[in-house]
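Fig. S4 source data, part A: sequence.
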Amino acid sequence: MSNYLDRLQVLLQQEKKDKGRAIIFWIENEGEWSVEDLQRVIGTDAIVRLLAPNHSLKLKREIERENVQSSFILYSPSPLSDEDLEPILSLRLSGVDFQHDDVYVWAERFQTDEWNLRKLMEQYSQFFTANTRLNKLEKYRKKYPHVFFDERLLIYTTVNSKPTIEEAFIQLVKMGTNITNHKLYKELNRFGLINSFVKHLSEAFGISTLKESNFLEQGIYAIIASAYFQDGGPITNNLAEFKSNKMNWLAGVYNKIAHSDEFKSQLSNWTVYFVEKYNIKEQLVHLTNQQLVRFKNLLLVDEIILNRIYKEAYETNIEQDINHLCAVIEQRLSVEFVRKNSAIYSYYSFWKNYINLRTELNKNISKVNIRPTSADLLYTSYIEKTYRIDQYVRNLNNSLRNIREEEYHDLVKIIQIRYERDWLQPMSVHASSLIKQAPQTSLKQQTSFYETYVHKPKLQTKARQYVIISDGFRYEAGKELAEQLQYDSECKVSCEAMLSSLPSYTQLGMASLLPQIGEMNIKSNKRVYIGDRSTSGNQQRERVLKEVDENSIIFRLSDFLNLLSKERKERVKGKSIVYLFHDVIDAVGDKNTTEHHTYDMTCKAITELNHAIQTLLNMEAKRITITADHGFLYLSEQSSTATKVLNERRELLDGNNRFQMVRKGVQSSSVEYGAFLLNSNNQVLTDTDTIITEGLNRFRTGAGTRYFHGGVTPQERVVPVLVIESQQDVKRVDVSIVDNNWVISDYNPKFILYQSEIISEKVLPTKIRTSLWLDGECVSNKNVVTCKAKTKQEQEQVFSLYLFEQNYPLHGTLTLLLETSSRNGRWERYRTYTYKVGILGGYTNE
């Protein structure tokens, strides 16, 4: 028996079971059955009768009066009109239709009701004309079996989106909002699905103004408008069409789009069009900065704020503080939209460093003209406080790279001259004067590095000692790296200061960081020796290390990091001391053609060293020490052309643009104005005289005119010593939610986050991401809160979330999820809290 007759039998038995007897209407277009043949096939299960207009009354009488217990199959081999079937309408209402075609097969494959499928095929017939589309629909249905089978499923299949109208819309606008040449729009229109799409989209967005002709553009504007309203933007008459009862949900859609790299440029363009079309600027220019900082997603807000900052900075005297603007800048830098927009972030970073630099210069310029009583005081002041001036200068210049406006560059030129002329110049003169007159300072010397930071810790802990020496990595950069590492809960970080040997240059600095197993001296080949052992190159330096500890080894840091993890572990197996040499800053600064990249390379060095630390910690390193051979001075072109240039000497042992060394006795006791002879008490090299330029002066010898090292200024001589120790007893601060009633009663709930301890060496700050969930689905925005309280008064902080608009079960349960960031950057579950729903209008489970 053929498949459709099997189906007929199944339907017959099902109707008998459900209704006591079956009345089945079977109407074909070109039927080939006779009543007699069909009766023989059906047997005694049902009576087969011919369904024809002239038999209607006879059939009605037989079925309703004469054979009320029997089942009937009423068969017609040709179509019948509604008029033909009118006399037996009561039979049709109590009976069921049977059709044999491919629809039944497809209904089984789609796992849906046959009659529901027939209605869809009748309404959207064009969609079902191609087998490839039907196959695609079948695959989609298997992937999402629980989605209700209606026209929305046809939409999702056509646009190839996840099964929500929101995702279908997002998939459409990926191709833009202009429907003229929109491929997916044309597909949906061809299948007659546009009207249905707009209807469902209007319901989902909670607005009734979407039209088929422009629903893509208006849908995007509705999403942008909701984010604008949520941030505090006024709902003016021209924006009233976007007033939605799903504002929080739409703002969530905005965040989803904003966080997608696919929409980065498109969203920016759409926002510009939205701002222009609806005169948003007119509404925002009257708001204060405190009101504007609430906006999280609008570029125009940052343009207004940045213009105000520039105006105040430009119109006020450079000696006047404007640090009241820092609070606004810090708030904007914490906004995710700003952090992801590199251009805007550069502007705020610029102003942060400009204002901080301007403030620090104003505080210190008056003091710098007072000569300290000793070099120790000058270096100590730099180590404790004024190093930040150089840090701000470097970061200010780096943030300027992405800013083209000439007026910003002019501001930097002005403050750069103030920095060099009014602070750097007098400080450098003091340093020269004090070193020239005084013996060696009492601060920690570079030649004590190995004994203090390598040998003694090795004896005390028995742990492998990793030492990274970064060429030219000056003190302020080391402090910045230490600040970045303070959030790492797996290690303890300290940053101390050390004075590099004089003159402060690479060959001598590298030798000073090795075991001092003999007197240091320099040969005519410019190589520095410890006793009779050369320290030029990693191979020679490794030999010096092995004189003290045979289990020592040296790598170039880049070569070491390029090894596979397994190879790195194998190469250091059995080693107690591992020196890693890193050369990024000096490699660029020491060349005339590349010295202008010095500040860029300093930032790169910080990033690379941070990565190296994480790699070593992952190798279970217990102690890592980072230092440098020397620091550097970096001057602007305006300043460098104003410095005094001195002639170089003959019979030089070595030298650069800041120092020259000759054999002892070659140099007379008198030195020309602009330089001085280094006191023998301040030298570590034997049988050598060193002449160092005073202030910011330079010799002709050397590659560049802006990048200096070799002198006695704190920038050139003070180097960092970072000690990173793996530590199990360091932890991130514990946080919890404090609440009295544990009920959420509105769509903008507020919560109190309590920090259990104040921040200390053993307790580190933490970042918490918060969100609300219902039945495994996120139903709010996600808010990141930083917990870094250093006083008891700051241990509690309030944060809020925005619930998406939908009916929540009254007295049902919402879950507040707290997540923390792991070392690999992923968010991980931290804690959850259960809240009862008390929102008016929520439905009850009854």
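Fig. S4 source data, part B ends here. The chain has a mean pLDDT of 90.
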